[in-house]
Design brief:
The chain is 36% helix and 15% strand. By secondary structure, the protein is α+β, with helices and mostly antiparallel strands. A 4-stranded antiparallel β-sheet has the order 1-2-4-3, with helices on one face. A two-stranded antiparallel ribbon has the order 5-8. A two-stranded antiparallel ribbon has the order 6-7. The longest helix is centred in the first third of the chain and has 20 residues.
């Protein structure tokens, strides 16, 4: 539960996250607090303070009031590759900072990308660090994330690295340019199989007016081999992310039509539950 609160001393408003201890996965909350206390970045929702009572935990968070990414795009009326590039660049800047501090988010997805306020040029903020991990030794093993955004190496139950965040950014980039996900199937086992094979395409007519540079960026982010996949630093140097090759042609109608078909609010909320999941049987051979 979140509510808006006022600090009387300063007159500043914050978001108060209230969590009942009985309903809590303590490890996730403790992990989120530990990570947020360690970082401060303009594109990360900050933790201002933390309180505890006998029955509840209270996290005083930076107030972010601009709404979710998809909602803002739908409200724009005009939307271009350059807009998408600007969003992804901000996400990459934050993720590069996290990776430099040995932190992996592990649950990057559109509804964890919020606008700071209602201003037209408001910045993007990354939220929800419940599944994040301080990977000081570089390797993790726990299968976690959101189906559809999780990297192949996680599904293959192999040790994985911060490269999983870059895969998720590749998925988000694909969605922002087409309005639909690169990997989809009603059956979760078949979905995971497609992800492990990196089985996606740039379908006509949805991708006909998207630049080759944007497609090249996505190919490098959705590289099945994590050692060949772009790092956040490499991604920031790509000409599409730097705004040099991103087109200014309006793609609002085609993208938003697909948004509304594929990410209807009720369907979106049901389909993106994050959890430490038990994997269905999927052949590792599909990943190798």
């Amino acid at each position: 539960l979140y509510c808006k609160c006022l600090e009387r001393k300063t007159g500043n408003f914050y978001a108060l996250k209230c969590v009942k201890k009985k309903q809590l996965d303590h490890s996730n909350l403790e992990n989120e607090i530990t990570v947020l206390r360690r970082i401060k970045h303009k594109n990360v929702v900050g933790l201002e303070d933390f309180y505890e009572t006998r029955t509840h935990y209270y996290l005083v968070m930076e107030l972010v009031s601009g709404g979710e990414l998809f909602d803002r795009i739908l409200d724009r009326g005009v939307y271009t590759e350059k807009d998408a590039s600007h969003v992804i660049r901000q996400v990459l800047e934050a993720v590069a900072y996290l990776h430099q501090n040995s932190i992996v988010h592990r649950d990057l997805k559109p509804e964890n990308l919020l606008y700071y306020n209602q201003d037209e040029n408001a910045k993007i903020m990354i939220s929800d660090f419940g599944l994040s991990k301080m990977a000081d030794h570089g390797v993790m093993h726990t299968a976690c994330g959101t189906p559809g955004y999780v990297a192949p190496e996680i599904l293959a139950q192999k040790p994985y690295s911060k490269a999983v965040d870059c895969w998720s950014i590749g998925v988000i980039s694909y969605i922002l340019l087409s309005g639909y996900p690169p990997f989809y199937d009603d059956n979760e086992t078949r979905l995971f199989s497609k992800i492990m094979r990196a089985e996606y395409a740039f379908h006509s007519p949805y991708w006909d007016n998207i630049s080759e540079s944007a497609k090249d960026f996505i190919r490098n982010m959705l590289e099945k081999n994590p050692k060949k996949r772009f790092t956040s630093e490499q991604a920031l140097r790509h000409p599409w992310i730097k705004g040099e090759t991103a087109r200014t042609q309006d793609i609002y109608e085609s993208v938003c039509e697909q948004f509304q078909k594929n990410f209807a609010k009720s369907k979106w909320k049901v389909g993106t539950v994050s959890l430490d999941f038990t994997l269905p049987w999927v052949s590792r051979a599909e990943f190798s």
